[in-house]
Write a structure and sequence with these properties.
Number of helices: 3
Strand content: under 5%
Structural class: mainly alpha
Low-confidence stretches: none
Mean pLDDT: 89
Helix content: 55-70%
Largest sheet: none
Distance between the termini: 29 Å
Shape: elongated
Number of strands: 0
Radius of gyration: 12 Å
Oligomer: single chain
Order of helices and strands: HHH
Length: about 60
Amino acid sequence: MEKQLQIKSESQYERILERVFSLTHKKISQNSAEARELEWLTRLIEAYEHKFYPLVSAL
C-alpha cells in the first residue's frame, strides 16, 4: 500500500480498516515491512477519526 498523508474518503477509510484488521490477526515480527505498514495505517486512521469522529478519538 502506498504511503499517503491522509485518508480521502469513507470507502478508503473502510479499506484501510480491513487491512489493519487483517494485519492484527497475523504474526508480525518487529521492524518488518508489515509492522511498519500497520503503524503507518494506524496513524492514518487516528488522524481521520480525529477529524471526522471527534467523539471516538476523545475516548
